Amino acid sequence: MTFGTTLLISVIMLTVLILYGVPIPYAFAAPVVLIVLVNDINPQMLLVTTYGKVYSLVLLAIPFFIMAGVIMEKGKIGTYLVDWIECFTGRIKGGLAAATVVASAVFGSVCGSGSATVACIGGIMAPRMKASNYNPGIIGAVICCSGPLGLLIPPSAIQILYAWSTNQSVLACFLATVCPGVLLVICMSITSVILIKRDKHYRLPDPVILPAPERRKKFIRVTRESIPALIMPVIVLGGIYGGIMTPTEAGAVAIVYAIPIACFYYKGMKLRQLKEVLTEAGITTGAILCLLTFVSIMSRLFLQEGLPQIILNALTMISQEQWAILLMINVILILLGMITDDICGTLIAAPILVPICLSIGVSPIHFAAILGVNLGMGNITPPCAPFIFLASRTTGIPAASIMKYSAVFIVTSYIPVLILTTYIPDLSLWLPNMVLGDKLAL
Hints:
The chain is mostly helical. It has one domain. 79% of the residues lie in helices and 0% in strands. The radius of gyration is 22 Å and the shape is globular.
């Protein structure tokens, strides 16, 4: 059996298993076993090589940030972040929706997880927006579509995996997604406010505007209460960008800082609940590492058989223009994001598509931002759309209602930002160049 036939059968098998609901690690294990058996490959060599790659200090950052996100959620740290942000958006009609977008970006800057962002910020903001007579579909869509900001505003779990799988600088990959992430925050905030103002079925009361002295007193009070929560992203981001800490060390410091704040200052969590936090983080990390092992083996097999060159030849047969090849790569990533989650998509696409990008003169750091926006959008694009269903469970709003309005955010926010990120390299390369300078080889 030729490699092309084996590849086609493997892709069909993987797609069917995922759609059928087989656990993702097992869904990727099956095609690996098929390729190894059909092509008579030595599995011992693959396992030894993969173990050496998975045994990486960089990957320790993932469980650390997952645990930090769970502590923030259970310890009410996220609640105080939201309260502080509302001080700036409270005077805008529809300001709660804009506050949700900004709070998701801030929360994501600590935990690095989109799903944790949806669960925590959704749990806080959904009751507030429902009490203010917001359209339930818009509530769910804002919460759902803000989740990918946790993947773009660094630190980001998928950027850690991207850097690990392509041998790039983690800090450079983090910095590459900052400008697209901020641009997405602006676009989504504007879109959400416009959607709410133009909604004819759910009329919002005019926002209560306090006199300047009372507004000042409220801001001072809320800021005083929120200072410990606001310091957390400053420690994490300042430590990473300032070169004081590696991402792994920053994740560990975030946990050490978050535990006393959550347990003793805000008293949102008991010390005995740390067992639940450790269990939740351990289960999530175990699933990711199991998935990482099988996907790494699959990617290695594909690289050995020259899949990147096969894809590049197929693309250049259609067009040899860089802009056209990038357009086709984006289409591939969008389709990949529609059937897999962000972690699977990163581990599959990064090692295969980076060589193609290098061959057409696209920086791998630039491609990190393109991949991040694409797979973030994939989380809210059916048929899989994990964030839509997570937002539905978190808010109690039907998924069908959320999909209707999430399509608006895709068209008005995600696609424009994706186009700008793809065709204006400086949008993603400006910050890495400024911070890293000569240390960054582009």
